Input
Amino acid sequence: MKVSLFITCLGEVFFPNIGKDVVEVLERLGCEVDFPKEQICCGQPAYNSGYRKEAIKAAKHMIKAFERSEYVVTPSGSCASMLHEYKGLFENDLEWYERAQALAEKTYEFTQFIVDVLKVEDVGAVYPAKATYHSSCHMSRLLGVQDAPIKLLKHVKELELVPLANSYDCCGFGGTFSVKMSPISEQMVEEKIRHIEATEASVLIGADNGCLMNIRGRLNRLGKPIEIKHIAEILNHQI
Output
């Protein structure tokens, strides 16, 4: 099975090792992974800010970049959901609508691909820790991926997974929201941190780098000793 990795902007710039974890897990599961170098930003910041022309330009570039891919897999539910949104940009352009539809049909978030396509729930990971899981908004609400990460984490040996109160609440990142509405964003992430601390977990796991970057930044400023891990790091950990 051939898979093209969509690394995302945050992944490429701030979390390149997570991309490596994704590749290693997929290769262990029998996938052949490539990396189309033409890929760019999915256009979500422009799209969410109302810059439709710029979003369309990015969408067309991404559609062409992954047109020959069998599957497109990304360690970001948020960016995966944006690729599914492309169809809405081309409602009056049948050719590009069909090309956007084709991309959406083969695009998956990392855990979604493992569980729903590869039909795997135990990847052989071992991670001795007490952890809790943050559910990101775009991944759970727009992409509709909720159960796959939990199924995978429940099979990680020596990992004690404890529930997070109001796990579905936004962490306050929201892409450009955290920049435009920073006072509100700050209050939202502090509420999230209070819930995380209440679990007494030493590790917070998530599946979207934007959320993890936002929560980690606030934890560091507050001097909290809680580790932040992308789920790919957990699934690629073996002893």
